[in-house]
Amino acid sequence: MKKTIPVPFLLLKSTVITIFMSVCFYIPAVSQTKIYASSQTVEQVSGCGSCQVLNPQGSVGSNENDYATIVINTSALGGSITQLLGFPQMQTAPFSKIVVGLGRGKGFSLKLLGRVSIATFQGANINGDSRTIDSTSIGYNADSTRFTYTFFTTKNFDHVGIELNGGLLSLGDSLRIYYAYYQTLPTNHCTTPPPNPLAYYPLDLNTNDVSPNRFNAVNHRLAYTDNAICKIAVADTSLTNAALTMPTLPRKSEEFTIAYWTKSIHDGSSIEIIYDYWLIQQRSDNNKIATAVIYQPPVTGHHVVIPDAAAPPPNADKYYHTVLTFKNDVMSYYLNGSLRLNGDRPPKDSFEIPVMASVTLNKQYLDDLVFYDRALTDQEVATYWSSYQVPDSTGQLLSNIHPVGLTAGVKKKQSLQLYPNPTTGLIIIKTKLDPGSNLITLTDISGKEVFKINTANPVINLPSSVSSGNYILQVMTKDGKIYKEKVVIHRN
Question: Is residue 16 part of a domain?
Fold first, then answer.
């Protein structure tokens, strides 16, 4: 029902388990009716007396190819002209999406764009939500002469105003207004989470915590979108690892729950959540979702706690719901209301440092993020999932897809000393290995092999095809001994 207009990966000190999981994605399919502007008026401010709107009715109605044109005929320093487009009735829905089609006959102009602002009105009264259009907030048409501007509002409105401020624009410069319409956002997949959350972030045009605790988050470059489960969600569409950070959420006991909806935008997308000493990583690559749940205390290092293996459904362009609960030193991982796996936490450190909670998205959508300072029961998780009334199509586990790395009961990996680390590509293995050829492999955080060589030389020069990032280096000797260590690569 929503539609759009990351902390770096941490390393595993001794083991990495990559999980390919079959998830149920979901995109709401409820159609949204477009309500186009049905009337128009023009307002001028002193200093723009000879500015005008040509063909003013061209921006009214559903013909998206007809247009009105605001023309600056004289130097309008300090002056402006506004076309007010009126809708058939006052819109009072909790959330609305407004789309305005704009353009310029002789090509796109950043100078012109920076002089255009849009606001909603109730009658003649502005709602106080005026916004200036910039190049990061628009969608372009293929010919670069037209673009759309989309925004969301929680205010009542019956008009939208498009203002062109003359400023220092060239004489005769113009702005085309093709259309304006709004859509209300369906709420049939909205629900109320289980009672007494520690923090609840619906992400509906803000990152506020709506629980009584008010642990409001800070938005770092996240965009808002109506491509989500309920009303509005957040997304990283600029490939900048957008994030939201929360205060250090208190722990009242040795148990918690984290629940959220997410969907990848395209290949290579990821989400990372840090809470206390836990790191949840989910990454989409090659139509698979790789997931790791990692316990990372400051002293004893990193431990992969949750392994899982499955294949995705044919259509990966859908949302899925993840719930993680922790109680009695056991982490439980649920997918779309069903328990998938349990994992034991190693003994905790006596030394603790408060950790700020955060969520980082990379080409990913996120909706309805909830934290609890208790572990939801199996029944609560199932009821919570079913309350969204989203169809489930979780895939079956496939026998030919396996975790990569060490699982419980497998022989322990040996320690490995690497220098320098981080490195620009040169790695010296300082650990004394058995003489003879050794099989050396380098894998990324998802378990994908990126480099392999058989050599007795302890000095390795990684090829330039291995990009900057976090990796695991494994050495397997002739007699079957396995050594593993994390390595960070920083390319200049």
Answer: no
**Are 231 and 351 in a shared domain?**
yes
Q: Which range marks the domain in which residue 285 is found?
A: 199-390
| pTM > 0.70: yes or no | no
When comparing pLDDT for 40 and 105, which is higher? 40
Longest C-alpha distance within the chain, in Å?
Answer: 88
User: What confidence tens digit (pLDDT) does each residue in 456-465 have?
Assistant: 888 889 998 8
Burial class of residue 280 in the structure, from the number of CB atoms within 10 Å of its CB (0-12 exposed, 13-18 middle, 19+ buried)? buried
For residues 463 and 332, membership in a common domain is answered with no
Considering just the CA atoms, what is the radius of gyration of the chain in Å? 27
Q: What whole-number distance in Å separates Cα of residue 60 and Cα of residue 181?
A: 10
Nearest to 321 by CA among 243, 223, 229, 244: 229
Residues 95 and 153 in one domain: yes
- Nearest CA to 262 out of 17, 430, 21, 486 is that of 21
Dihedrals φ, ψ of 57, to 5°? -75, -10
* 234 and 324 housed in the same domain: yes
- How many residues are listed for the chain in this entry? 492
Instruction: Look at residue 303 and tell me if it is in a domain.
Output: yes
Low-confidence winner among 42-51, 80-89, 137-146 (lowest mean pLDDT): 137-146
Is 192 a domain residue?
no
**Mapped to the 3 state alphabet, what secondary structure does 413-440 carry?**
CECCCEECCCECCEEEECCCCCCCCEEE
Distance CA 86, CA 158 (A): 6
Chain centroid, CA 127 distance in Å: 29
Structural domain total, the chain: 3
Place of tokens 């113009």: 174
Same domain for 41 and 154: yes
pLDDT of amino acid 410: 32
Asked whether residue 295 carries a pLDDT value surpassing 60, the answer given is yes
Give the pairing of strands 96-103 and 174-184.
Answer: antiparallel
pLDDT in tens, 216-273: 999 988 888 888 888 889 988 766 778 899 988 887 678 999 999 988 887 778 899 9
Residue 170 and residue 211 in one domain: no
Distance between CA atoms of residues 209 and 211, nearest Å: 6
- Report yes or no on 13 lying in a domain: no
157 and 211 both lie in a single domain: no
Q: Which of 161, 184, 207 is the last residue of a domain?
A: 184
Q: In the predicted model, what is the mean pLDDT of residues 383-388?
A: 89
* Domain of residue 349, CATH code: 2.60.120.200
Query: At 46, phi and psi to the nearest 5?
Result: -50, 135
User: Who's near 248: CB < 8 A, 6+ residues apart?
Assistant: 354, 355, 356, 357
